[in-house]
Fold this protein.
Amino acid sequence: MFSKNFKKLFAVALTTSMIFQATVISSASNQEVKRIAGKSRIETSVEMSKDVYESSKNVVLASGFNFADALSAGQLASALDAPLLLSSSDKLDDATSNEIIRLNPENVYVIGGEKSLSKLEIEPTIKENIKEVNVERLEGKDRYETSIKVMEKTKNFIEAEDLLIVSGKNFPDALAATSYMVNHNAIMVLSDGNSYPKSNLNEIAIGGTNQLPLNGFDGKRISGADRYQTALEIAKASFNDNDTAIVANANVFADSLSAVSLTKKYNAPIILTSQNNLTNTTKQYLQNLDNIILVGGEKSISSNILLNPTLEELAKIQEQNKPKPQNPQKPSKPQKPSDTNTLVVGPIGEGRIKGNMNSMIYHLPGQRDYNRIKPEHIRYFKTEKEARAAGYRRALR
């Protein structure tokens, strides 16, 4: 299924003129693996566009530094089968501008307000480069209203059946949810955790009740124990016969936001991971596939991600290697003399039993307070019988 950019396992990584990386990852199976990455989050979005589209009637543009608007943009990009490109807020980056020129779209949809993408810089630059292009901005007073505007626009291009409700406070669940749209007529809206625009559609909450309590919600919920498991559950609910997965970093949104651009071409879900370690269940899922696409550079996902210990294995190793606390040495119990007349003496015959002249208690070598008696208060004895005869009693410990 993959293009010539794919490299068989154990092959040598090849850098192309598009700053494209095909990174080799060893695996127990004969999987094909490639990495799509640029020098920055902006260029990574461009490389994903280049990988999928020779041209495109539509382009969706969002900020690479505001994950909320970019997540809302994903549904529109999916519905239009269009690339999701990223830009800086104060200007249209050269890499993005050049990619829009290459794609030569009829429509560019700009997602977000002035703080996300400058109106004085973005639209004029696009129109200067492509004379007949239609540029439409979708914005609201905040991320939630913007997501509603994008959702309503998306309805113009699909017969929506499902409404995905995702948290607008964090990005992993919403990112993974965009792949649900590959095989379902779904739209998506961001929620503050409790409220969302009601609809007559099949409403599906994405993520657990900690992130998305939605008081009174009685619809379907797709969630797992954490962000990794939630992404896996979305994949299982969305795909039955896929042989490919797109792997993105669940903790750093920079390189992951445009992964939706790949989902339709490869009929693949977005699977989330940490930089260096998969979970047990994620690793098992990926091992059953033929092809893996890594999104972002080495700082996003390690080339050894399939070889490294899983998070659970790593935790076990760390637990095994944890230094065991050293119990303080308890003083050995003194050997109890067989009778009180047993000699307790040093090498030259000196008495070793210490009597405390203040307390009138004597201590055998090894007892707790044997070395705590002030020298001026010590009286030495050779036998317990001798100490008792002098009016001393034995220490209890």
